[in-house]
Every structure is written in C-alpha cells, then in structure tokens.
Amino acid sequence: MSSTAAPPQMPQADQIGTAEAGGVSDFAGLALAAARAAALACQPWVGRGSPKDADAAATDAMREVLAAGPGSGTVVVGEGAKDEAPMLYHGECLGQGGPEFDIAVDPLECTHLCAKGLPDALATIAFAERGSMAELGVSYYMDKLVAGPAARGVLDIEREPEDNLAQLSEALGKPIEDLRVMVLDKPRHEELIGRVHATGARVTSPPDGDVAASLEALLPGGEADLLMGVGGTPEGVMTACATSALGGYMQARLAPRSDDESEALSGAGFGAGQILEVEDLVRGDSVFVATGVTGGPLLRRPWTVEGDAWTESMVISAGGVQRIAEAHS
Fold first, then answer.
1. Which residue from 325, 313, 316 is spatially nearest to 126, judged by alpha carbons?
2. Hey, where are the domains in the chain?
3. What would the pLDDT profile of 182-199 be if each residue is shown by its tens digit?
4. Is 40's pLDDT higher than 80?
5. What is the reported pLDDT for 94?
6. Which CATH architecture has domain 141-281?
7. From the centroid of its chain, how far is CA 257?
8. Model-level pTM?
9. CA distance 32 to 16
C-alpha cells in the first residue's frame, strides 16, 4: 500500500507525530497502518450478513501489520472472548522486537452494523507505554461516564443521572434541555434513557458502538455532551487512551453481566462495581486510532478514486486530533 496525492477537495495524509517525540508516540504510524488495514480487509463483508467473517478479516489484517511492525506490543485487552468472535488474544505479543508497549484493540467495532451495511462501524486500536494499561481481560462490561474537559471535577459516576446532568449543565453554561446525551439502545438502559428524557435533555441511542458514542461526547465539536451507560471494557480502555490524551473526563465502574464474569473479576482481585478513574485505566503517553469502515458522522467509509482505495482515520495523541485521508494502491 502506498500514499498518493489527494484528489481535489480531499485532505492529504499528514505526517504522524505528537508534540513530544519519543515513547509510544513513535508507534502512532504503526497503529494507523493496522487500523487502515483492518478497515480495508473487512470491506468485502459489509452488508453480507456475516459479522464473524467481517471480524475475522479485520483481525487477520491487523495482526499481520502488527506482527511485521517495529517494537514489541502486548495485547492487554482485546475484543472477542465475550462473543466467541475472532480476536487478538490477551497476552499475545506482536512485533519485530524493540521498545515495548501495551495494546488495546477492537479490529472491528460494531460487527453487526458492518454485517448489516449500517453506519458507525470502525476499526479501532490504542497503544500505551508498557505496563500502563489496566489488566482487565476478565472484565467484559463497564459502566461509563465520558465528557470533555469541562466535566473534570464536576461529575461523579456514583451520583444519580439527574444530579450529573444538572452539574454538567452548570459547568457548560447551557440549559439541561440543550444537553445531548449518548446512551446505547440496549434493554439494560431503558430506565436510564427514561430518566434522562425526564430531565428534558436530548438522548441519542445508537444500537452499538460506544467508542464512537464516547468520541462524540469527548471531541471538541462532537455531537454530544456526555456518554452514559454500560458498554464494553475493551472499548472503555481505548476510550480512556483518547480521554487521557485530550485531557477529557472519564469514570468507569465494573459492571459484570453474568455470574461467571463476576467470579472471574473476584479471582483477579477486582470487585464488582469497582470505580476506575481514567488514570486507573491508562497512565502516561498513549495514542488512539480509528478508521472508518461503514461511514458515519465521525469518519467516512473507504472509497475509490481512479483505482486507489482511500481511507479516513482519526489519530488522537498528546499532539491533539488529526484526521487523515490516505490512498492505498
């Protein structure tokens, strides 16, 4: 795959870097290459009704790029086990050797949306300094609050939703009626959505995709002010990487959905309901990358211009947010 000049009115691929050289930021280009490869590999499966085939294609492509890359990455938290889906495995080591780093990954977030040809599927990955990501491989689900920097020191996941919305309204200087809240459309959230509606706030309820939903609440100019509710743990750790890099707000609470998950958490030294700050999920330098798979408000799906396949990606690091379009022959 190679870069080419961008077509008219399309952004050209930027040089990947951060405000501070060194550390895991040196591997941002590898994370970007892995996400792009995954997004392109699952394109033949978009809309074909086979989520596991799409996931397997994305996983294999991402593994191939990471295995051939510089450094030595260890998968600390991956997707797949809770759904018996293809996955990059917890503890799997990838790379040609050198500086070590942690990996949190979901090669294809929203496999069912991809299989149905619906928007918002993404290829996602995050890197952090070795030993700095929380080892939460036994946890599949967590309750989350995610918002921009204005929410830091203001919200508390132990408060009632109505109290947090009132506090956020004051911090942002806007009426509760103008707040926009992301809550996944799941049966477990029926009561929460009703309570948010009762305050007068607006609710957006995507069927899946809490990374994309979190980014809408976290990014400047995003479509939401806050994400609330229970989603996946791998997605939570990746979101924490983006939150940490951007100075945003995030709290999480472990929320096992089965007795087996609760027992596994207890055996690993975690308590059901344990609260985690963003610093508990990831410390130090980190980089998060997402590439569009089926399109949506955040990122375009891959498209073709004069025989070249183009992808659009987002790289979040200490240097800020970069949107990158690049062609692949």
1. 316
2. 23-133+285-328, 141-281
3. 999 999 999 999 999 999
4. yes
5. 95
6. 3-Layer(aba) Sandwich (3.40)
7. 20
8. 0.89
9. 9
